[in-house]
Amino acid sequence: MARSVLVTGGNRGIGLAIAQRFAAEGDNVTVTSRSGDPVDGLTVATCDVTDTGQVDAAFAVAEAAYGPVEVLVANAGITRDQLLALMSEDDFAAVLDTNLTGAFRVAKRAVRGMIRMRRGRIILISSVVGLLGSGGQANYAASKAGLVGFARSLARELSTRNITVNVVAPGFVDSDMTATLPEDRKKAILDSVPLGRYGSAAEIAGAVAFLAGPDAAYITGAVLPVDGGLGMGH
Predict the structure, then answer these.
(1) How many C-beta atoms lie closer than 10 Å to residue 130's C-beta?
(2) Which is the catalytic residue, given 66, 140, 198, 218?
């Protein structure tokens, strides 16, 4: 039976690939974006995950169209890279508010319906940077590492209601952002990845679909790296 799926930040990149994967498998998908621009084949809700009111409204859109959200993918995220000595407090706080507190806001809203249904899947999109660290990304790494502790705590809280909570930690993914990197930086990145290539957004989507599917019913509190071996499980 088709499930109601909500993907935050689902209008482009990894989020869009995830949303399209669920739609291709027959689920009813709502994506959020700050712009609210239309996305072919998907229901779109305008939402800034730093605003609790907008989060509630986005869930209302999904619920009105498809019923209570059974699968939540918290993917929305931003970067504001800077060396610590030069990083403003605003830039540190903004990244945590979107990437970590934003996940809290959407998860808190999602569990209302999941607890009533006594089933659900929550998948948080972290990053290999949250596990390995990265110079100039203390704010981003902290936010993405925080998702792991958040997910594992929720996994313990919600397990009796048949709700699983897991994390996918992508590595370097072929995207608009990596395409603009200088050639020497691209080479340095690829030299650090054992498989010697970028991942694809579709490969991240496949891992998310697995964790949301029947074969992952006994997996909760896990961190699944999709990083070409870069993190080696860390």
Answers:
(1) 25
(2) 140
